[in-house]
Amino acid sequence: MFNILTIDIEDYFQVQAFSSVIKYEDWDKFECRIERNTDRILEILDSVRSPQKVRGTFFVLGWIAERYPDLVRRIQKEGHEIACHGYAHKLIYNQSKEEFREDIRKTKRILEDITGIEVIGYRAPSYSITDKSRWAFETLVEEGFKYDSSIFPIHHDFYGMPNASRFPFVIF
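RESULT FIELD:
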C-alpha cells in the first residue's frame, strides 16, 4: 500500500470560507499563526514511530513563503517536499489564463529561490480546478509542473470533479 500525506501551508484568514469577510488587502492586519502551527505539525511527523521517516508534500502559498522563508527551509530540511499552492489563494476559475500563469510563475520562483530546487507539484487553492477550469492543466505543464493535486472527486458548492478517479491518474 502506498500512502500520501499532503499539507496546505496557508493561515486561517486565507481560506475560501472567509473570503467574503476577510479581503486579501487586509491579510497583513491579522496575526499569522502559520509558523507555530507548522512547527507543531513538523514535531508530530518527527515523533511518529515508523521504520521510515514520515515525509509529506507541503503545498505552500507564495504569500506565506515571502514572509516566512525560514519556515519553508525548515520544512525542506526535515525532508519534506515543497510544492506550489498559488500566491494569494485565488480560485482558478475566477482568474484568466494569464492571471493564473503569473500567479504560479511568481510562486514557483519564490519557492525555488528559497529552496534551491525545482518545484514540480501544484495544488489549486480550494481544489478549484474543476470542469470549468480544466484549461489550467495545460498552463501547469507549460510552466514546468510535473503533477497536480487539485482534483477532489466530490460534489461541493465551489469545487470538485465528482466523476474523477479517487486514485492518481494521468490527465494528458
